[in-house]
């Protein structure tokens, strides 16, 4: 209840404060810059029409690609989805019910197999954390995407620490929405775009619908998922709730884990026009982390672990209170008030893996997150010469407070997350408050049934603060403390800016669409950019925000009976990019470390292509029993550093940016039987801006090319279903990342071959 009270209380204050800030910023900074562009948007949104002039409203709205068979699980978002506009944008839609994949482990390699241009980190085989990056951006905890659940923020701190330690279970999802860089205007300024996990909605035609999925697998894996949905009180009240328990021993030594995840969503239809929604998510897990390996250790035995004292614990509490009011068939408004109370504890030995663990005191990083926000949207439809026009206006107020403490913990081996000196930690103690107010608008201007222009803007005010201290400590070669100096810091960075964007859509034929989009992007520095004490990495005190833009041009099919295709060329300009430079201490230490700083400008240019074909309509048009589909997903990315005086990185490839990713698969369906085989290949790429191929600590170096095959089989009966899946069918030895700190440092091997058996019951 305290969490819900915080949300409701904050929304009133934040809405007023946010409105004042937005108006002040708009008047003082942006009015002249927006000029005719903003006035045009306001004028068009103010147009009113008579009822007889809008009989055809909605008839010309783009429809989502229909899922003709469960083999085609990927489509596009409609021009308008709920209270959001996606016309002229690069979008992907994953229908979870159409997947034949290992859902129990949140296997991102299978779930996102048909989304082009993604680089996926595989840090654990249980899907505890999601690491996805696109178009040459780092996959680190999906921090380059704006990650949301049911349309509201779910990351640790959307601005101060946009990393996702919580991932909704795929078994609970209805769909996953992916919007590329053009999402910056509606959802925030991240270069990667939007990743929205939509959980199955409350409701159904009975008071109780039950779905249970019980999974066992290799290496002690067990997953229990049970959910209930239903409708009560004559349709006024509907609900959805689930509970998940997941545990396992892990593929490597010292890799056990246990997770519990619960969710409740209650929807109340107050009146014909007003509905209220309340959601709560509670998740927690404890995982032992086997640590990283050097290149030599990985080549000898990737399953071995040299760190048995590293642990990671996460607690996530996320709540939302929302309401939607329908003024008419043409106008509706939605407001979501959300809050997060969460924490993550990382305990272990952070020294390079090539240093032996002698049982010394461990390092403990304690991160706490207390955030709340409110986001309101209004969507209005009107008609000009019988053509449907749509305007969206929204505002956001957000306050995030992150607490970060780092110091010494016990020299034991258990998961005892306690500081030895909680009153005066040895390394750092900070609070990072940040405030964000935004006003945004987009408008679908329809010139004809086939051609639209969608301009938009976003006004942002961001204030980032840091208050606390860190200690500079010097040790001799025997590990004895020689000197210690405590340094107090108080930083305040306040900035306001305007982002502009526009999209074009042209549909020459019923099943074809050409689209183009340009949107400005912005990424604010977060607290890991400001202060984290790590022997493998350091931070430049002069680090600044990143700016740039993303441009797309592409062609896609729209609801064709036997082909689903999307080909996109993109260009991403990234100014003052924050990255890691490989440096070394002065003699006599010569220790190598990674420096986090604004290393250069970069440009990412590439081509993303996806084609899926239903083969039976082509080969055997009259065969209605068998369905066979095949897809090919390929992305070519050339991401390089430009405009820099540092010769060590000039024209070098951007780290975590594979020049080529290729995924392909085939699905077969006959009656209640389905089978899918997916194959993925990722080209060699680098982990730092200097493109180092190998270092002694293994924190930097090349990630060799790798390929993986997955196989899934499903057989359904009346009310129960049996699923069998095999991840990494050919037992490849590979890795997708080199960690700077947790869960490493060093090479983090990906899991070998594993088998899973799932029994699903639906009543």
Tell me what the structure shows:
The chain is mainly beta. The protein has one domain: Beta Barrel (Maltoporin, Chain A), CATH 2.40.170.20. The chain is built from six helices and 37 strands. A hairpin with a 3-residue loop joins strand 33 (706-716) and strand 34. The radius of gyration is 26 Å and the shape is globular.
List keywords for this structure.
single chain; 52% strand; Maltoporin, Chain A; 6 helices; 37 strands; mainly beta; 22-stranded antiparallel beta barrel; 763 residues; six-stranded mixed beta sheet
Shape: globular
Provide the structure class. mainly beta
CATH topology: Maltoporin, Chain A
State the CATH superfamily name: TonB-dependent receptor, beta-barrel domain
Strand content: over 45%
Number of strands: 37
Q: How many structural domains?
A: 1
- Average pLDDT, to the nearest integer? 87
Text of the CATH class:
Mainly Beta
- Tally of individual helices: 6
End-to-end C-alpha gap? 32 Å
CATH architecture call: Beta Barrel
Unreliable stretches (pLDDT < 50, length at least 5) are: 10-16, 18-71
Q: If you compute it from the alpha carbons, what radius of gyration comes out, rounded to the nearest whole angstrom?
A: 26 Å
The major pleated sheet works out as: 22 strands, antiparallel, barrel
Helix content: under 10%
